[in-house]
């Protein structure tokens, strides 16, 4: 009995002296298993996030356009979205910001003139027999005039990129006035505003804009070779429309990392490996988003404006249907083809966001996998594979 108690006490004492725990090898095995599981989980998560970025970007673009439309309806004022070029690839869009209308520009007085490209004081194209009364095609300000007339400040607007080709001007400003589209270039391509203030020919070049079409009234009370199309007393007030500006307290919103709007692939005649990648006439984007240069570039002011009725207004309405081609940034940088049958094949997803300008409706669609027209599903409503 005593011996058993002694053995029991010795056994308990020996057990208390031992330390329970993992050996070093066991601990390393456990840590290795944990690291392996973590790596597998992280790779799956990254694959999922990377695979959804284009579709998430499409949802973001659609939501942003719908947000601008709703803002216009509830504020009773025009609201819109400006698509901002990616800083590393100016043929793609990587961010957006809300914009609103700018107050019209009415500073100074203007005069209507015949074309005088060389500033020699004689109207270009005048011929007593064949062209005795050239039309008024130029509207000029008096910023450098010694008569101290109010300045139009057009050159300053042009320098700040607030005045560009395609803007509209109303002459005269009242309800009897007519709207004209303006160009900052001469018919031969010379700059009208960039050269304003420099001395050419008989004097200092004034700030000038070219009217498209010609001024509606034929020049009167002046000879056909005179630059001034009307009498010296004929000065007009005007209304000049300026592009929208970013709304207060708004910052650009980035698309998901690695997702962009591929502007080149918004063109139905897109081809790989060349810039420009398609005919300007085949683009689904508004024409004034593309420059007149060769090769063409994209504007820094690509705006879609909605009216309080929820429909698209402005020059963006001319297409009727605008397609935004969202793709993986790597595919856009490498100018990948849009069909699955082409070689090389695009690595990332491709989604089209379509805007119906006459109704304001916005939808997203898959790219047709084999058709030569990637927008077929968006325009017909067909299901991929049928």
How would you portray this structure in words?
The chain has 386 residues and is an alpha+beta fold. It has 2 domains: 52-102 and 244-380, minor pseudopilin epsh domain (minor pseudopilin epsh fold, 3-Layer(bab) Sandwich); 103-242, no CATH class. The protein contains 5 helices and 18 strands. It has helices spanning 2-17, 24-75, 154-159, 329-333, 376-380; strands spanning 79-86, 89-100, 111-113, 138-140, 168-171, 178-183, 199-200, 203-204, 208-212, 239-240, 245-246, 253-254, 259-262, 302-306, 312-313, 321-328, 350-356, 361-366. The strands form 3 sheets. Strands 1, 2, 11, 12, 13, 14, 15, 16, 17 and 18 form a 10-stranded antiparallel beta sheet that branches. A hairpin with a 4-residue loop joins strand 17 and strand 18. It is elongated and about 140 Å long. The model has no long low-confidence stretch (mean pLDDT 82).
Short description:
By secondary structure, the protein is an alpha+beta fold. Helices cover 22% and strands 22% of the residues. Strands 1, 2, 11, 12, 13, 14, 15, 16, 17 and 18 form a 10-stranded antiparallel β-sheet that branches.
């Amino acid at each position: 009995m005593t011996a058993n108690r002694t053995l029991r006490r010795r056994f308990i004492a020996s057990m208390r002296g031992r330390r329970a725990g993992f050996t070093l090898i066991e601990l390393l095995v456990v840590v290795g298993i944990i690291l392996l599981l973590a790596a597998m989980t992280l790779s799956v998560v990254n694959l999922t996030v990377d695979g959804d970025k284009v579709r998430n970007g499409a949802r973001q673009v659609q939501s942003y356009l719908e947000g601008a439309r709703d803002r216009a309806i509830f504020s009773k004022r025009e609201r819109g979205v400006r698509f901002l070029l990616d800083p590393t690839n100016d043929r793609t869009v990587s961010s957006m910001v809300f914009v609103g209308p700018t107050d019209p520009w009415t500073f100074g007085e203007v005069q209507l003139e015949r074309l005088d490209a060389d500033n020699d004081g004689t109207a270009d194209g005048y011929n007593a027999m064949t062209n005795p009364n050239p039309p008024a095609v130029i509207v000029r300000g008096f910023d450098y005039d010694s008569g101290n007339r109010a300045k139009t400040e057009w050159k300053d607007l042009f320098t700040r990129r607030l005045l560009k080709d395609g803007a509209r001007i109303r002459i005269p400003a009242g309800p009897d006035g007519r709207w004209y589209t303006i160009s900052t270039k001469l018919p031969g391509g010379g700059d009208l505003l960039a050269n304003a203030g420099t001395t050419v020919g008989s004097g200092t070049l004034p700030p000038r804009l070219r009217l498209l079409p010609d001024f509606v009234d034929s020049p009167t009370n002046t000879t056909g070779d005179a630059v001034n199309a009307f009498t010296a007393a004929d000065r007009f007030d005007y209304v000049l429309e300026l592009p929208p500006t970013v709304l207060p307290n708004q910052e650009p919103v980035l698309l998901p990392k690695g997702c962009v709007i591929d502007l080149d692939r918004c063109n139905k005649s897109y081809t790989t490996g060349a810039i420009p990648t398609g005919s300007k006439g085949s683009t689904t984007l508004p024409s004034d988003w593309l420059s007149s240069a060769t090769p063409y570039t994209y504007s820094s002011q690509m705006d879609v404006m909605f009216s309080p009725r929820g429909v698209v207004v402005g020059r963006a309405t001319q297409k009727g249907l605008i397609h935004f081609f969202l793709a993986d940034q790597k595919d856009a940088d490498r100018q990948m083809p849009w069909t699955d049958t082409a070689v090389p094949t695009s690595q990332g997803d491709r989604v089209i966001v379509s805007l119906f300008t006459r109704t304001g409706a916005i939808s997203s669609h898959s790219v047709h996998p084999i058709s030569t027209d990637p927008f077929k599903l968006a325009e017909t409503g067909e299901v991929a594979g049928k």
